[in-house]
Automatic annotation (TrEMBL):
GO terms for molecular function: transferase activity. This is Isoprenyl transferase. Its cofactor is Mg(2+). Homodimer. The lineage of its organism: Bacteria, Pseudomonadati, Pseudomonadota, Betaproteobacteria, Burkholderiales.
Length: 243
């Protein structure tokens, strides 16, 4: 990896462990989610300071609807209050926010708050924050196929580059670094298509405790990786990318 590639352009994060963080403190799970938002705000700023261009976080999965109703409604209210509390700061810090996921099944008030965040930050260019909300990697592949078919793309024309243009993250390069906190070593239906060649870092840190030190440890780990992309050496891969 040459020095220019040592800082990932795009980091994807499964922000896991909020519930266990709260449980350890004998507090309701919701408190963990609240502190999780503060961790997110700090990490986005730290990423911008380090020259990362894109951060994509898993905030609510298509499977998370199956949690107890009280937790789901708490998370929906938290989405709304987070926008009210942090949007002005995000605008000021140059963060461009995009929501990725199936918005059609999100309640109107939640959707309106999320779309307000997108709209108010759309001229920002310092860092791109994508919030995966009601997102699933399988949903993403299916919706991309549906859009391609609706556009009249012929089966023989449907190659990887074409399908990529219909994927929810088509505006961003694929994630270089994929971090999951909370100790579990699984993808849980996050960016299945886009993470084909991401470098994975699994951290035991519970998400509300994830700060600059943990981010820097993940970045240092990433910088030591030899990204071969199926080739024999990372130097060959870099030369091919430049050609
Ligand atoms: C991740 O933390 C946040 C969401 C899924 C919304 P969890 O709520 O999954 O926390 P744990 O894994 O139960 O500790
Ligand atoms: C993944 O975490 C989803 C988010 C962080 C939003 P989960 O806690 O839902 O994943 P599993 O259930 O442990 O696989
Ligand atoms: Mg979890």
């Amino acid at each position: 990896m040459d020095s220019a590639q040592r800082v990932p352009r795009h980091i994807a994060i499964v922000m896991d462990g909020n519930g266990r963080w709260a449980k350890k403190r004998f507090m309701p799970r919701f408190v963990g989610h609240k502190f999780g938002v503060d961790a997110l705000v700090g990490v986005v700023k730290a990423c911008a300071d380090r020259g990362v261009e894109y951060v994509t976080v898993f905030a609510f999965s298509s499977e998370n609807w199956k949690r107890p109703a009280e937790e789901v409604s708490g998370l929906m209210s938290l989405a709304i209050s987070t926008v009210s509390k942090h949007l002005t700061k995000m605008v000021g810090e140059g963060v461009r926010i995009r929501i990725v996921g199936d918005r059609s099944h999100v309640a109107p008030a939640v959707r309106a708050a999320l779309e307000r965040a997108e709209e108010s930050t759309r001229h920002n260019t310092r860092i791109n924050l994508s919030v995966a909300f009601n997102y699933g990697g399988r949903w993403d592949v299916v919706q991309a196929c549906q859009k391609a078919i609706a556009d009249g793309v012929a089966p023989e024309a449907l190659d990887e580059a074409t399908l990529s243009r219909y994927m929810a993250m088509s505006f961003a390069p694929d994630p270089d670094l994929f971090i999951r906190t909370g100790g579990e070593k699984r993808v849980s239906n996050f960016l299945l298509w886009q993470a084909a060649y991401s470098e994975f870092v699994f951290s035991d840190c519970l998400w509300p405790d994830f700060g600059e030190a943990e981010l820097d440890a993940a970045l240092a780990d990433y910088a030591r990786r030899d990204r071969r992309f199926g080739l024999v050496s990372s130097a060959d891969a870099a030369a091919l990318a430049k050609a």
